[in-house]
Amino acid sequence: xxxxxxxxxxxxxxxxxxxxxxxxxxxxxxxxxxxxxxxxxxxxxxxxxxxxxxxxxxxxxxxxxxxxxxxxxxxxxxxxxxxxxxxxxxxxxxxxxxxxxxxxxxxxxxxxxxxxxxxxxxxxxxxxxxxxxxxxxxxxxxxxxxxxxxxxxxxxxxxxxxxxxxxxxxxxxxxxxxxxxxxxxxxxxxxxxxxxxxxxxxxxxxxxxxxxxxxxxxxxxxxxxxxxxxxxxxxxxxxxxxxxxxxxxxxxxxxxxx
Length: 258
Known about the structure:
By secondary structure, the chain is α/β, with parallel strands linked by helices. The protein contains 7 helices and 13 strands. The strands form 4 sheets. Strands 1-8-7-2-3-4 form a 6-stranded parallel beta sheet, with helices on both faces. A 3-stranded antiparallel beta sheet has the order 11-12-13, with no helix packed on it. Strands 5-6 form a two-stranded antiparallel sheet.
């Protein structure tokens, strides 16, 4: 039996990695309307681009979620990031440019901890808002199976019925408004962002164009170091380590790594 479902499993619990954005909001409402039992899990990765993370599960309930939980993934993410640093795997080079491995680390932690939480709630079908065009669909699929080998996968974007009915942002927003369900209409940006406690990436859309540089980016973490009017002062920092892990900065000890 295939572990990847292409039709909605009506009457069964389906775990959704819920971000609170338009895609997952519409998917949860659509799944509930069609007869599935959506259960929503939101990862707390210390992301600075979500202004009301504690409120996300409540929004999931509005769209029809049977279960809605916020899963604290920060400690695990920090640990994985520190291990990546120790291995020289945190910063990789692509086309001669350094790229920080913040997003892949976040996906690994999200994929394992959310599926573990779902399994605790007897939810053994998992879906998320990733499309067939990117590598997230493979990341979540494989990380999920590592935690729960019996896991089945249902992704709305692999369901022809969902795509036919809600195949674009306009269709999804119309679906929600016609049912008087709230959603946050986000302003269209020139690029997309992905952030967690380790950092943020800015990619896609205009940034894919060869005639567009990083000068259009307004960083959500860090500073725009390429701008002439941005001054970056040097600072001496002392970090204390114990058994290979940082425990203090400038003499100040921290109880947790988060």
